[in-house]
Amino acid sequence: MPDGGKKTMMLSKKGESQAGLPVITKARQSRIRQVQEMKLSGFRPGEIATKLGISRRQVDRDLKDGKILSRLMAQEFDQDSFLGDSIKFWLQIRWKSMRDSEMCQEENARIGHRRNAMTAQEKLVKELQDCGLLAKVPERLLLGPDLPFEDPEVRQAYLDFLILARERGEKNLEV
């Protein structure tokens, strides 16, 4: 598949040309990705050339231009949009799992849906922490008898909970 030897500009995903980069048609971009995948899979350049019916020199050019193409695609990558889509995805998974949990008749299925919701929540928190939008999630629950509760019944239930937790050897309690 001859490329005509033109090496003056490159077409971006939006169809705009960028000066100083080689012309890479959509068909060649596809072949470049195929060559890169084969190379990553362990094929040698000679094997790739034979399998695709191109010259060894063309394989070398495709690998070289593939690096340029990868850099360009990385520059055009919209991190904010990707992060927003990812957050939206995990929120939807969590919401749907909780909804399915509420609609289930069988207890085991309900528990499974709630586990899915918890996993989605954990992944969402991790993603938010990794990108710096969430600094820290509490690792311990600090409980003590000095927390104010107005209702005497709630206060007593809270103190009973503390006693039970201590009896069972809960280690993440601070009083």
Walkthrough of the structure:
By secondary structure, the protein is mostly helical. The chain has 3 domains: 69 residues, Orthogonal Bundle (Arc Repressor Mutant, subunit A), CATH 1.10.10; 51 residues; 38 residues. It is built from 6 helices and 2 strands. The longest helix is centred in the middle third of the chain and has 25 residues. It is elongated, with a radius of gyration of 28 Å.
Fold topology:
Elements: E1 9-11, E2 17-19, H1 26-40, H2 45-52, H3 56-76, H4 79-103, H5 107-130, H6 152-167
Antiparallel strand pairs: 1-2
The CATH topology of the largest domain turns out to be Arc Repressor Mutant, subunit A
Task: Give the spatial strand order of the biggest sheet.
Answer: 1-2
How is the main sheet built? 2 strands, antiparallel
Radius of gyration from the CA trace? 28 Å
Name the overall outline. Answer: elongated
Helix content: 55-70%
Residue fraction in strands? under 5%
Low-confidence stretches: 1-17
Short description:
The protein has six helices and two strands, in the order E-E-H-H-H-H-H-H. It has 175 residues and is mainly α.
Descriptive terms for the model:
175 residues, mainly alpha, Arc Repressor Mutant, subunit A, 3 domains, two-stranded antiparallel sheet, 2 strands, 62% helix, 3% strand
